[in-house]
Predict the 3D structure of the following.
Amino acid sequence: MNDLEIRPVTSSDRDVVFSLLKDAALWLRANGIDYWQSWLDPSDAHVRWINKGLESGEFFLVESNGSCIGCFRLQFSDEMFWGTRTEPAGYVHSMTIARSLAGQGIGRLLLATIEARLRADGKRYLRLDCGSSVVGLRRYYESCGFRAVGETSVAGEALTLYEKPIAATT
């Protein structure tokens, strides 16, 4: 599946974003992984965080053949998770792909697509975080070329910070 289309989320897509996040949380629960469970019944703080990202144009839908298959949030600063950083970077949050498409390499393709966009915009790093206890997800990001560069805690959750240098085009 190499035909990914990425488009900004519109106000009419709000429920789609929440549905994708909830579906991912249900899949994680069904697989015995205690992560993202807050998306099953998001708190007011989580809803505000999503709404802020929607209002600022940071959320994107991922489509293939006219069907929505995922979403992500892309920020160009992320003090909540990363503190103040001066290096030009993109920060990915809430990335999810429909679980029915798991194992098809779509997540890797999406990360590569985001990286290419950031490279074109002159960014030097692609950064993200994940639960420190979610070993499988950590291995996945490491297999995609990310390296752990620190730890943080947000809302009582231990998180590992990952970054991937973006090579300049020659």
Summary: The chain has a mean pLDDT of 93. Helices lie at 14-30, 44-55, 79-82, 106-120, 135-143. The chain has one domain: 5-128. The two ends are 27 Å apart (CA to CA).
